[in-house]
Design goal:
The chain is an alpha/beta fold. The chain has 13 helices and 14 strands. It has helices at 3-24, 29-36, 40-52, 118-133, 170-178, 187-194, 257-260, 262-269, 274-282, 286-310, 320-323, 325-339, 359-374, and strands at residues 56-58, 73-75, 81-87, 91-98, 103-110, 140-147, 150-152, 155-158, 182-186, 206-211, 215-221, 224-226, 314-317, 349-352. The radius of gyration is 23 Å and the shape is globular.
């Protein structure tokens, strides 16, 4: 490496440090110097191009205590944005996200994707992306694309509930439609990422469980999403809880999703939509309550298996489970208390995701904003 290359790497590393500090919270140059260990001169040198490029903005001077007034730096409210897009079995969603974590636009459209071709799915996703970006003069950093299946090396490897999309390179094809750089990842992993970036919402070690027709789990260890060697980690929906149970779309029997997936809950409750089920539960409908309780027991058995494997202290229920949390919690917690070996005085903490049904698409957009902060050269591309 030449001296010039070395200096460039040092500068990018310092720039990354400053941007990460600003993701945490805005601050003056003096404050940033104290938080990062960089000198004020270095900070000025680093932030001037960011100010000139509309990535940061300097606020008017304010006097806080003794000394000179400070001018806080923050991400520009009209700065670059990332797009998140979600393909799921029963809906499509998009969201635009600023570098500061602010949601600008979002859409969630109910849609049964089980029989749709790749072209049909991608045309609809591209249309939604145009809806939330057309007319905006803000720089688009790229698209994070979430998919409910196993993703490896840019391709869909396994998708029991969307078999027509197996083998497709969806990121490349969506990029061709939008002219944007697209990054593809599993939807459960991205839902977990949304609880890590840009804010830690559940600590550094947890499992995030989300459900549509299928069930996925994002496993977070030491502040990083654990994907496994081939991307199969977290396939909670296909953990077997009854050896000779109901046949599953994956080819096995007795998988968790055949007892606790959203479509199963709705069918057993005699309801067609989640909002209808929620209203029935609030009205005390016994059939709806029994369906959710039975699903919660099955879900608790599956989650207990993950807890015994990964020994994390927190489970976050997201997606439709977050909507149903008040009615699911008791049954799930009861199974965890009886089956998790590290129970007793160290009960597993069960939480409802504050992001609800938008965790996946927010995590997809966060995949791109995090990349931009960690690889700041992308901000000037």
């Amino acid at each position: 490496m030449t001296t010039v290359d070395h200096l460039r790497q040092v500068r990018l590393g310092n720039l990354r440090t400053v941007l990460l500090a600003l993701v945490d919270r805005p601050g003056s140059r003096a404050d940033l110097a104290a938080r990062t260990g960089l000198t004020k001169a270095t900070l000025s040198n680093l932030t001037e191009p960011l100010l000139a490029g509309g990535i940061l903005v300097e606020e008017p001077a304010t006097l806080a205590g003794m000394g000179r007034p400070s001018k806080p730096l923050r991400f520009h409210p009209a700065g670059p944005v990332a797009v998140g897009a979600e393909i799921n079995v029963s809906h499509l969603a998009v969201e635009t996200l600023g570098l500061d974590g602010a949601t600008l636009e979002r859409r969630l459209v109910p849609a049964d994707m089980r029989k749709a071709t790749a072209d049909e799915v991608l045309d609809r996703v591209a249309g939604l992306i145009r809806e939330v970006t057309e007319g905006s003069e803000r720089t688009l950093l790229g698209v994070g694309l979430a998919f409910p299946g196993v993703v490896h090396d840019g391709a869909i490897v396994r998708a029991p509930n969307l078999p027509k999309l197996v083998g497709e390179r969806l990121a490349e094809r969506l990029g061709e439609r939008t002219g944007l750089d697209v990054q593809l990842d599993n939807e459960a992993n991205l839902a977990a990422l949304a609880h890590l970036w840009p804010r830690h919402l559940a600590g550094e070690d947890f499992v995030h469980v989300t459900a549509d027709v299928g069930i996925g789990a994002g496993v977070v260890l030491g502040g990083e999403v654990y994907r496994g060697v081939s991307g199969f980690a977290g396939e909670l929906g296909h953990v077997v809880i009854e050896r000779n149970g109901i046949r599953c779309t994956c080819g096995s029997r007795g998988c968790v999703e055949r007892y606790a997936g959203l479509d199963v809950i709705l069918r057993e409750a005699g309801r067609r939509r989640l909002d209808s089920l929620r209203k029935a539960l609030e009205a005390g409908d016994p059939k709806a309550a029994a369906a959710v309780r039975t699903a919660g027991e099955a879900l608790g058995v599956g989650i207990a298996t993950l807890m015994n494997l990964f020994d994390v202290p927190t489970v976050v229920l997201g997606g439709s489970y977050a909507v149903l949390y008040d009615h699911l919690r008791e049954a799930v917690q009861s199974e965890l208390d009886g089956r998790v070996l590290a129970g007793g005085e160290r009960h597993t903490r069960l939480l409802a995701s504050p992001l609800g049904e938008f965790a996946v698409v927010r995590g997809a957009a966060g995949l791109i904003t995090r990349r931009a902060v960690q690889q700041p050269e992308r901000l000037f591309a």
